[in-house]
UniProtKB/TrEMBL annotation:
It catalyses: (R)-pantoate + NADP(+) = 2-dehydropantoate + NADPH + H(+). Catalyzes the NADPH-dependent reduction of ketopantoate into pantoic acid. This is 2-dehydropantoate 2-reductase. Pathway: Cofactor biosynthesis; (R)-pantothenate biosynthesis; (R)-pantoate from 3-methyl-2-oxobutanoate: step 2/2. PROSITE patterns: PROKAR_LIPOPROTEIN. Keywords: NADP, Oxidoreductase, Pantothenate biosynthesis. Its EC number is 1.1.1.169. Gene3D superfamilies: N-(1-d-carboxylethyl)-l-norvaline Dehydrogenase, domain 2, NAD(P)-binding Rossmann-like Domain. GO terms for cellular component: cytoplasm. It comes from the Bacteria.
Length: 345
């Protein structure tokens, strides 16, 4: 698959979508960003600034970007469609792709959660739909700042199902992409660490600061314990995370701060400004993906009769923050899980 000949559409050009699309455009790929009006206006006015944890800082000028808010314009001639919308918009995007895209377009889900590729496939029938996983955080500049900046604030390789030679098309500077033979295991492994998104959202802390505090790590470890029990009861074997066996994660998270910082350097290789997309959703008054993250594990727990009280508590707190529409509630660890509860070692 020759990169210069294929038209790549970013279906949902938010933070992740703009970063992926920006890296591809800078590498000479033909990219169309399907964006909301706010993003489209910012990109047309100032272009797209793409930066990362390794120190790259590049600008895609407005005239070098393909940008539209019209699904028909974006999708009608797409060869590859990278779906980067939030999980709650997956069904709607599947409908737009079915209505406007060619039948031979390859669709790739680059979304949080474990079943978005399945949802896309259910809505698209016999079309080629591939699962993917984005391991890193992307921070978007505040509204009104030009050029719009998307900053990759943590590390990791994007994983996709093998198909149509896509890895070579998408693997460009600033965006490492490789294939994996068991994407189900990869997605469930990623979900374990994504259980922390809610804690960042509830605390309001930057991700690096939150992970450096053992009180918060105990809550994450407790959630992962519950998730691993539910996965085991369901016959799911999650893939390694940052080179670690999933069963080791809770033990490492419970280490004293000084020892955790020493042993978990890769996990802590995060830009100081990084937070989570769930925090950003609360700040912007949008629905979060709590139902696709903690909710996915709670679904397993319910079907297998596995207790998950901490996951239920975290979910309820995020739902309350969503309903309050006041951004992050800025909770302390003790307000999320009282000392001596299921978070403890």
């Amino acid at each position: 698959m020759a990169g210069g000949e294929k038209r790549i559409v970013i279906a949902g050009a938010g933070s992740i979508g703009c970063y992926v699309g920006g890296c591809l455009a800078l590498a000479g790929r033909q990219v169309i960003l399907l964006a909301r009006p706010r993003i489209e206006a910012a990109l047309r006015q100032g272009g797209l600034r793409v930066s990362d944890l390794e120190g790259r800082d590049r600008l895609v000028k407005p005239d070098a970007l393909g940008i539209t808010t019209d699904p028909a314009t974006a999708l009608s001639d797409a060869d590859v469609i990278l779906v980067t919308v939030k999980s709650g918009a997956t069904q709607e995007m599947a409908g737009l792709i079915k209505a406007h895209a060619r039948a031979d377009a390859v669709v790739v889900s680059l979304q949080n959660g474990v079943d978005n590729a399945d949802r896309l496939h259910a809505g698209l029938g016999p079309r080629t739909v591939l699962a993917g996983m984005v391991p890193f955080n992307v921070v978007q500049s505040p509204d009104g700042e030009l050029p719009l900046r998307v900053h990759r604030a943590s590390d990791g390789k994007v994983m996709i199902e093998d198909g149509a030679g896509l890895a070579s098309l998408l693997d460009v500077e600033g965006l490492s992409v490789e294939t994996h033979g068991d994407m189900k295991a990869v997605l469930w492994g990623k979900l374990l660490m994504n259980l922390n998104n809610a804690l960042v959202a509830l605390s309001g802390l930057p991700l690096a600061s939150e992970l450096a505090d053992r009180r918060w790590r105990l809550i994450l470890a407790g959630q992962i314990d519950e998730a691993l029990r539910a996965m085991k009861a369901s016959g799911i074997a999650p893939a390694r995370i940052a080179g670690l066996r999933p069963a080791l994660l809770p033990k490492i998270l419970r280490l004293p701060d000084w020892l955790f910082k020493l042993l978990a350097r890769r996990m802590l290789a995060i830009d100081p400004q990084a937070r989570s997309s769930m925090w950003d959703d609360l700040q912007r008054g949008r629905p979060t993906e709590i139902g696709e993250l903690q909710g996915a594990v709670l679904g397993l727990a319910q079907r297998t009769g596995t207790p998950a009280p901490l996951l239920k508590s975290v979910t309820a707190l995020v739902r309350a923050a969503e309903a309050a529409q006041r951004g992050s509630p800025g909770l302390a660890p003790e307000q999320v899980a009282p000392p001596g509860g299921s978070r403890s070692a």
